[in-house]
Amino acid sequence: MLRNTFILVTAACCLAGGCSNKLSVSTTDRPLSEAAHLRGTEAKAPPARTRAGAQKPGPVPSRAAPLRAAPPQLAPRSASRPILHIVESDVGSDSSVVTDLARIVGGDRLHVRPIQTRGTSSDLLALMRSEVDLGIIQTDAWQSLPTDLLRAEDRERLQYIAGLYNKDLHMLASREVTDIRQLHQRKVNIGQSGSGTNWTARQLFTQLGIEPTYEEADHAIALDRLRAGQIDAVLLLERRPAAILRTFPKDSRFHFLQLRYDDDVARSYLPGRFDEKDYPNIIDTGRRVETIAVGTVLVVPNLPETSARYRRLVQFTTRFFAQFPELQKYGDPIWAAVQPSVIVPGWRRFKSAEEVDRPGQLILRQPSNRPTR
Fold first, then answer.
1. Would 62 be classed as within a structural domain?
2. DSSP state, 180?
3. How many degrees, rounded to 5, is the angle at CA 303 between CA 299 and CA 304?
4. 83 - beta bridge partners?
């Protein structure tokens, strides 16, 4: 399980027959390391999904459940394709999004490969310094930077292609804890250092004036420690339903804490919720859990329009919007909830995105990025 915060995408282009295969992923002396997420998968497409997740052929579906067309396959490696390096977020649910971008947006035009993130603030700074080319970041990542980098002119260093999906905050705690404020001076696991969960949890608790005893274990280990009574709560920032929580054993000793969307959190976050359909082993029938959410946005650095890197970003942007119906048809179900034309307040849109895609009327309510005092 990766301890990453958000997804960065770096691109390096190799002209057909005119250059070597050596790539410069970053302008720093320490390039990001390539992850093994798609290792061994480029020669064939991933198996089609089934409800039970099995790969064996099932019975012939009825008219109510027609067979889906075969999804686009990963194209074989080619020196003529520009290469995009994508950074996976923490927890691993974004792995399916990365895979979709590789086989559907990339296809036979772009060679997409995942790499490992270096943490929230490090990756965001890399984007601001134009050391990397593309990234999927949490909207509260700005607040992980020093105060002197939260100026309006610094925000101009980044532009957005599209608003993406939200990640909901899950707070699984023992039954004796009935309110988030009761976590004061209790042991709370907030995910590994540098992860999106870790940063958001620290920011939230500071904003609410709560001082837990922080634990920074991997989520799977943390859930085991929760069941053993060694900690009081586990926080997880993830798009719902989070796979690791869907498989959590039914246990009446634990429940999700509510966090209502009110004046205490409205300035910095979005409203979120989930119910028993998302987590039947944890939530009682008919009950809905209110929580907060953090948005994600696809961003690029502000580059000169005459540069080769800018032209590569234009190519990616054009492919992204052209193939978006295919993402919704063949990709992870999360794409059905993504509205790529959404207007993101406080962000300047990438020129190519404006030219390719007509912005819709829906305005995504983004949290304020002012530093918390």
1. no
2. G
3. 150
4. 12, 111
Question: Residue 233: which of 171, 320, 140, 191 has the closest Cα?
Answer: 171
Question: Is 64 a member of any domain?
Answer: no
Tell me the two tokens of residue 370. 């002012």
Please list, residue by residue across 302-330, b when 16 or more beta carbons sit within 10 angstroms of its beta carbon and e when fewer do.
Answer: bbeeeeebbebbbbbbbbbbebbebbbeb
Residues 356 and 318 sit within 8 Å (Cβ to Cβ): yes
Distance CA 176, CA 232 (A): 9
Note down the domain range covering 352: 7-45+73-165+295-356
Beta strands in 75-209 (DSSP E): 83-87, 111-115, 134-138, 158-174, 187-189
Q: Is there a domain that residue 33 lies in? A: yes
Upper half-sphere CA count for residue 315 (Cβ side, 13 Å): 20
Query: Do residue 260 and residue 285 come from a single domain?
Result: yes
Query: Model confidence over 21-61: pLDDT tens digits?
Result: 333 333 333 334 433 333 333 334 444 444 444 444 444 34
Check whether residue 108 and residue 222 sit in a common domain: no
Sequence letter at residue 175 = R
If asked whether residues 330 and 239 sit together in one domain, one would say no
Domain boundary among 264, 292, 320: 292
Residues 6+ apart with CB under 8 A from 233: 171, 172, 173, 174, 177, 183, 186, 187, 188, 189, 212, 226, 257
List alpha helices for 18-106, DSSP H.
Answer: 95-100
In a domain, 52, yes or no: no
pTM of the model: 0.72
Give pLDDT tens digits for 128-142: 888 778 878 888 877
∠279-282-284 over CA atoms, to 5°?
A: 95
Regions of the chain where pLDDT drops below 50 = 1-68, 91, 361, 366-373
Structure tokens at 218: 């991997």
- CB 345 within 8 Å of CB 364: yes
Q: Write out the two tokens for 214.
A: 């922080």
Q: Are residues 338 and 213 in the same domain?
A: no
User: Residue 206 in contact with residue 372, Cβ under 8 Å?
Assistant: yes
Residues β-bridged to residue 255: 173
